[in-house]
Amino acid sequence: MRVLGVNAIFHDPSAALVVDGRVVGAAEEERFSRRKHGKRPVPFSAWELPEQAMRWCLDEAGLRPEDLDAVAYSFDPALAKPAEDMGLEDPWDALRRTYAEAAPGFLATALPGLDREQVRFVPHHVAHAASAALVAPIEAAGRPCSVLVLDGRGEQASHLAGHYEAGRLEPLAAQALPHSLGLLYESLTEHLGFLRSSDEYKVMALASYGRPVHLDALRETIRATPDGGFEAPLPDWSSFAPRRSGGEDDWPPLYADLACSVQARLEELLVELATWLHDRTGDRVLTMAGGTALNCVANSRIWRETAFEEVWVQPAAGDAGTALGAALHVHADDGSSAEPMVTAALGRQWSDDELAAWLRRAAVPFTTPEDLAGEVADVLAADGVVGWFDGRSEFGPRALGHRSLLAHPGRAANLERLNDVKGREQFRPVAPMVLLERAAEIFLDGPLPSPYMLFVHRVAPAWREQIPAVVHVDGTARVQTVDDATTPRVAALLRAFEARTGLPVVVNTSLNTAGRPMVDDPRDALELFGSAPVDALVLGPHLVRRAGVFAGGDS
Predict the structure, then answer these.
(1) Burial level of 11, CB count in 10 A (0-12/13-18/19+)?
(2) Are strands 431-435 and 480-482 parallel, antiparallel or unpaired?
(3) Per-residue pLDDT tens for 312-349?
(4) Three-state secondary structure call for residue 191
(5) Per-residue pLDDT tens for 376-411?
(6) Where are the domains of the chain?
(7) How far apart are CA 487 and CA 106, in angstroms?
(8) Fold matches, 174-313 and 352-545
(9) CATH number for the domain running over 174-313
(10) What is the predicted pLDDT for the residue at 548?
(11) How many CA atoms lie within 13 A of 310 on its CB side?
């Protein structure tokens, strides 16, 4: 069974290919187009077809469009209602639904040889659910689990709760629009001067600097309902704090207080929704997807405070992941099962020789050291910043040791330094990478392993002063655990860095600068190295050192 999944309806256009139960590749269009989240001037920002990502997926498998058994589109226009009928204001709603209805024709044009009759519509939240539940690495036979999906909106709803067994979904609850925790958080994001449907993670970071002074007021209107859903009318944010234009540099406490209050209420409500679901299913495992599942602070509370023994969040939990989920759903409908997802490294890669050819073409001096981990550890130990490009790129918003920016965690000033390098707000934290076998002694009160940076852990008091760059203002860290099986070069680097510094942790943030997508190909990496204050660049086994700062020579 060969199924190409496509997301091209709200934001984060993407494609994923599943062949006989194996995820061959998955990528967001932004990595090819260099337009973050697929954003173009309205109205086109909402439905950019991921043509380059689709073609790459097929090329990766050596397939032609006519070889596909199906193309799965992660939105079903037959289920969609006009926005005004659902109490929403969306001036582009009719055009979006018309576009979705015409998607088979657009896809057949973009993929010559594809029969438009092969296009199957998959409901948006079903695609989200499938993206998590059908590939969760669960050992039990048949992989039974609960699934919780929350985002801005789908065709008619903003939430789905259900149970999966033997590849089949049993829906148990869904929240009809206009009530939406995702839209509520998006609305607050915009009120605080950030970019809606893009910068919600900034609100989560800002919340740690505030106090939940408005929590009681929010509890009065934002609340769970007995049927497993919730009420979430949009507040008048101006009654809490004036709207920010987005151009100011200062952050008065009232904005952090508002962010903290909404974040706290979101966490409480998600715990209630997950508890309701466990009461209905009794499942050991909860899987999660939807944009709200990228809220790692809320995920951690669900893990700590509900009866689920394990919580697994799909690493591309936002709308990009619905391309994967749509493909998996159609694949499961055919009676086929999928292999468990053991890595988010599902994007493009280049051979060592191809990377060397890129460096020679750019006339960049480089070496190919026998002890790459040792030489990079030397740079980091001397407080250098390193761009790290290795293997397949990550599917999802987190840099996980394939397209990363690395630094010394023991220098508190490196937080401000990296935020300056990336051109982003100073309240934003950076994350620690740590070997899995060392994680439990340093990072507490969170699930381990934690390979996708989707949970926060409390940093052990004895370690806070040793790794201050990765400790957020509230004493937590968004951890990525590393093992030899998935990221062997990173694991070797961590061991080499500890041998030099005594610290088994390295700072990890995404390899990009503000407003630009994460680096994906060698050209992107060389462009960033040439324009940002980065001291060294790793391209696979090759090492480039900044001229005038470190010695270097052509291999």
Answers:
(1) buried
(2) parallel
(3) 999 999 999 999 999 999 999 988 889 999 999 999 99
(4) helix
(5) 999 999 999 999 999 999 999 999 999 999 999 999
(6) 2-135+318-333, 174-313, 352-545
(7) 38
(8) no
(9) 3.30.420.40
(10) 61
(11) 17
Say if residues 210 and 257 touch (Cβ distance below 8 Å): yes
Q: Which residues of the chain have pLDDT under 50?
A: 41-45, 141, 550-555
DSSP symbol at 194: S
Is 179 among the catalytic positions? no
User: Which of these is catalytic: 11, 278, 329, 331?
Assistant: 11
CA-to-CA separations, 411 to 227, 382, 384, 456, 465, in angstroms, rounded: 50, 11, 11, 21, 10
| Among the four given CATH numbers 3.40.50.150, 3.40.630.30, 3.30.420.40, 3.40.50.80, the one describing domain 2-135+318-333 | 3.30.420.40
Place of tokens 């969760």: 136
pTM attached to this predicted model? 0.95
**What is the per-residue DSSP string for 316-340?**
TTTTTHHHHHHHHHHHHHTT-----
Count of positions (residues) in the chain: 555
Euclidean distance between CA atoms 283 and 145, whole angstroms: 6
| CB proximity list for 1: less than 8 A, separation 6 or greater | 18, 19, 20, 21, 69, 70, 331, 334, 336
User: What CATH number does the domain located at 352-545 have?
Assistant: 3.90.870.20
Q: Give residue 215's identity as a one-letter amino acid code.
A: L
CB atoms within 10 A of CB 533: 11
